[in-house]
Please model this.
Amino acid sequence: MDFNNFKVAFSNKSDSDLNRASLLFKSISNPTMSSLLTGVIKICLWLKFPITPIIKATVFKHFCGGTTITDSQKTIESLWKSNIGTILDYSAEGKKSEEDFNHVMEETIRTILKAKSEESIPFSVFKFTGLTHFSLLEKISSEFPLSEKEQKEKENFIYRVERICKTAAENKVPIFIDAEESWIQDIIDNLTLEMMKKFNKTECWIYNTLQMYRKDRFAYLKELLEIAEEEKFLLGLKIVRGAYHEKEIERAKEKGYACPVHTVKENTDRDYNEALRICVKNSDFISICAGTHNEQSSLLLSELMEENNLNKNDKRFFFSQLLGMSDHISYNLSEHGYNIAKYVPYGPVKDVLPYLIRRAEENSSIAGQMGRELANIMKEKKRRKNS
Ligand SMILES: Cc1cc2nc3c(=O)[nH]c(=O)nc-3n(C[C@H](O)[C@H](O)[C@H](O)COP(=O)(O)OP(=O)(O)OC[C@H]3O[C@@H](n4cnc5c(N)ncnc54)[C@H](O)[C@@H]3O)c2cc1C
Model:
């Protein structure tokens, strides 16, 4: 597999798409420029300055499908032309009321129903923090006593999770549950495990996410394997490295507890790749999605599948990247017949902004990744010029 086949990687990008993308990545890759831009955006929003159209035409256009499911249709179709699926990710963040949380549940259900009717949408996805207050998840995870009001909010939240999972299973649409900060992850793990036991009896509809930067995730994977084997249900797992690395380290330092994440990148890589090995070995009752922009891990999974005589398009194995990132991995894997789907965030521009700002602000390891995106775009521009 040659991830450097840029002709394939950028086959759906016009010259003007490439020019826009290179300008965008040039801005994001420069740390001074990036923090200046995100600062300006935050100030403009605070001043209620009408910058939405500018954002929509630039960074939103690159990283998001649209403001609604219907508005994302063009992106869905464009990806599907290259056999790349879409995972519609309703990215409205920072919601605070019970009404908002119900709205996120209803919208997630709409993504499931949309996926049911379209081959081009192989999964749905949601986050627990879209369905209740972060502080409540924190309290439940730390087994802190809840007030009467919080107890009611907890019941509402569990109802929302169950309703989404039930709708996914009934409509035969597999659904990912994203992993979040370690101090709220226990409730996510416990409830997701319950959902897997309930709905993954004969087919795999519910997927938890394992963040392999966590020192305890390898042991947790082994524990899950034992539980699934003993209680006879199928395990669905999205395997990622983890998105909150700096935050995890800072909180552990501040509160004085042992750091829960690896601080040496090679250790995260080792655990990530080892998790892939174990999952492929246990493919009788595990389905996985490798959510990664790492070339070595993507290549490794394709090799492990081959070594274990698994078909490239075996539905138990998916690869996934974010829209607007690592197209060289997505398009080349797809070209070789593997199952690929992109996370396609969508939602009102101002609600998706935290996601977009994170894309721009991400830590140094991602800054390296942004540099790689830009280098790939420049190579394709040069290839087109010379051909
Ligand atoms: C489809 C998809 C779904 C995702 N879903 C989730 C999710 O549900 N929850 C979530 O938390 N993240 C999620 N992510 C983000 C993911 O966890 C990573 O942050 C991101 O993909 C970068 O890691 P990588 O494997 O692509 O590549 P790489 O660039 O090889 O790895 C970067 C990652 O390595 C780790 N790392 C960096 N520096 C160090 C260090 N010094 N020591 C140890 N480890 C280090 C961090 O996790 C960092 O993000 C998702 C990503 C994708 C593509």
Q: What stands out?
A: The chain has one domain: 6-386.
